[in-house]
Backbone:
């Protein structure tokens, strides 16, 4: 401005008069004014660039996806960085909200596609840079599925005599909606309840978890309400002996040695007043009339009213150990046949020819027969009141309880008594 005033003073007169009369001077004035404006703009309000970060991108016409039962998996809320160029005073007035970014999803029907970002920026600015000109979207079919809620426990009940008889979630089922790839990955809907402080019937709240087969939580699906109430019912437990009840007698050729159950005790649950009055749990009658040997028979338990088995799938087997009838041959060399009651001054010789052994057939229950030995038979001939001479005498023997005689060969032998 000082320069202009000096120019006017040199030529004299007012500034407007000089400008009107002198074209050359007009050009000089305009040029000098431009220089002054450029100086002021460069120093006072220069052109600069400014970055605006994490600007949301609007998904325009996304309702068209919903009509096709599709949904965006990722990115669900895309954001990009934008750099604008403009005068500092202008950029100082601009916030990220003044920058509008859109993606038109009107014709979007594929599972994966790249779409351009439509950019709208304030006037008197220009786009200097953008972190991504296009966005790639992954889309999946939207489905829904109902899952039964399972209750899992952590910790242990504070008293060993207690057990949880029932855990009922409310609601029983949950409806899950989301991308098919996510929904299909769900293995179970679970709530976990800490039972370390449970001593009686109670209600506990828990947050629903959707888990895959590896136990990892599945996210990015929609559930109406993840809050679940769980009713916990508590009963007492008691280990009670099993009493095997039998009916009918075993066949005559079968001897019952032992009857017992496996397990010998069973755990039941119920109210304390009921459970404390029970001393044994009977089986349904086991028929011994059909037993032919060692047996294992499945038996049902007669559970008193208001009691339940802790393990409803528990099985009880009745073991029956028996002794069956069998036969056996006892034999000794004929030379080992003993003489009893022989006079001291006499001796005897066996005269029977072609007889090498004494053989006896016996029968009885196996536990007795298998232990019966030749020496137990005590084969002998009784020579009481016999003097010198040749005699045909019966072979005598001894039987123990439980052994039945079937036959002996030979029944008699010829002996000679001499001095």
Residues:
């Amino acid at each position: 401005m000082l320069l202009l005033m000096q120019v006017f003073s040199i030529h004299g007169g007012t500034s407007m008069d000089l400008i009107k009369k002198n074209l050359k001077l007009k050009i000089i004035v305009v040029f000098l004014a431009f220089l002054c404006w450029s100086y002021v703009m460069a120093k006072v309000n220069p052109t600069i660039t400014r970055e605006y970060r994490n600007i949301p991108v609007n998904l325009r016409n996304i309702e068209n996806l919903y009509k096709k039962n599709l949904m965006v998996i990722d990115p669900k809320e895309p954001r990009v960085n934008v750099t604008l160029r403009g005068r500092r005073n202008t950029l100082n007035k601009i916030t990220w909200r003044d920058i509008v970014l859109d993606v038109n999803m009107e014709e979007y029907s594929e599972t994966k596609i790249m779409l351009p970002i439509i950019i709208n920026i304030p006037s008197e600015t220009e786009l200097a840079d953008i972190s991504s000109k296009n966005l790639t979207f992954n889309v999946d079919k939207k489905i829904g599925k109902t899952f039964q809620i399972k209750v899992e426990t952590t910790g242990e009940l504070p008293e060993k005599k207690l057990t949880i008889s029932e855990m009922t979630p409310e609601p029983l089922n949950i409806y899950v909606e989301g991308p098919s790839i996510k929904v299909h990955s769900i293995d179970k809907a679970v709530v976990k309840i800490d039972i370390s402080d449970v001593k009686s019937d109670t209600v506990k709240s828990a947050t629903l978890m959707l888990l895959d087969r590896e136990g990892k939580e599945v996210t990015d699906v929609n559930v109406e309400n993840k809050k679940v109430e769980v009713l916990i019912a508590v009963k007492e437990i008691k280990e009670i002996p099993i009493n095997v009840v039998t009916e009918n007698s075993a066949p005559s050729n079968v001897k019952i040695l032992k009857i017992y159950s496996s397990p010998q005790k069973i755990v039941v649950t119920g109210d304390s007043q009921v459970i404390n009055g029970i001393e044994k749990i009977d089986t349904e009658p086991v028929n011994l009339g059909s037993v032919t040997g060692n047996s294992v028979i499945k038996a049902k338990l007669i559970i008193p009213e208001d009691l339940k088995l802790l393990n409803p799938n528990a099985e009880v087997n009745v073991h029956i150990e028996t002794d069956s009838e069998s036969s056996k041959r006892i034999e000794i060399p004929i030379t080992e046949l003993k003489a009893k009651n022989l006079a001291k001054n006499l001796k005897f010789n066996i005269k029977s020819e072609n007889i090498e052994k004494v053989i006896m057939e016996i029968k009885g229950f196996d536990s007795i027969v298998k232990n019966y030995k030749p020496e137990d038979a005590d084969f002998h001939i009784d020579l009481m009141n016999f003097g010198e001479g040749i005699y045909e005498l019966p072979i005598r023997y001894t039987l123990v309880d439980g052994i039945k005689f079937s036959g002996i060969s030979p029944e008699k032998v010829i002996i000679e008594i001499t001095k």
User: Anything to note?
Assistant: The first helix runs from residue 2 to 11. Confidence is low (pLDDT under 50) at residues 1-13. The two ends are 178 Å apart (CA to CA).
